[in-house]
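Comment thread on ticket #2218

A.B. wrote:
> Attaching the input chain for the structure job we discussed in standup.
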Amino acid sequence: MFADTSYDALSMDDIAKHAGVAKGLIYYYFKSKRGYYLAIVEDSVAELVARAGGETDLPNAERVRRTIDGYLHYAEHHHAAYRTIVTGGVGSDAEVLAIRDAVREELVATIAEGAYGRRTLPPIARLALVGWLSGVEGITLEWIGGLGGLAGPGASGGPGASGPDAEPAAPDQPGRAELGALLVRQLRATLTVIEEFVPECPAPPVPDDPAAHRVDLAPVTGSP
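C.D. wrote:
> Ran it. Output below, let me know if you need it in another format.
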């Protein structure tokens, strides 16, 4: 409902009616519409971080790929929630911005752990990864804008893809696997640059096996 209706226009009566509960019950748990809105954002953030940072028992390189795929999967199926997290919510809400910043820190730490086996980095290395993640956010926002109604029943626009998330999909829009491959290659380049500036953060070695190296490109080239 927040995706399809402006924050100010959506009333607690509307929310309670849609949920099939008494309005007082919502006030009991969330105190106000703002409290309810922040709870939605926090819940969305928790799902995004869990999806992106899961499967910690995988080898580091595979974990990085899965982290990026999980991130894109969330954005693909939750357009409005993703936009809210990345852009800072209604009117760049300070509390939502704080939640967004916490998400960025967690994702940067997750990538660092997958690349280097540790979550804390020297400042310049961390800044490089923050720059890469900022690019990921911009690319992902552009991508989901082109997907439009392709997000399906799990999207924030809901069945039928009505509302602001229902833009027509571009016919040549890349799929999640292809976009993920692009972001993995961009990350590999970023890690190489980091090594030039911070030798104590060496880039993970490129596999000697050409077949293993092609894994990143498989979604682009179609090669097995």
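A.B. wrote:
> Thanks. Noting for the ticket: The first helix runs from residue 12 to 19.
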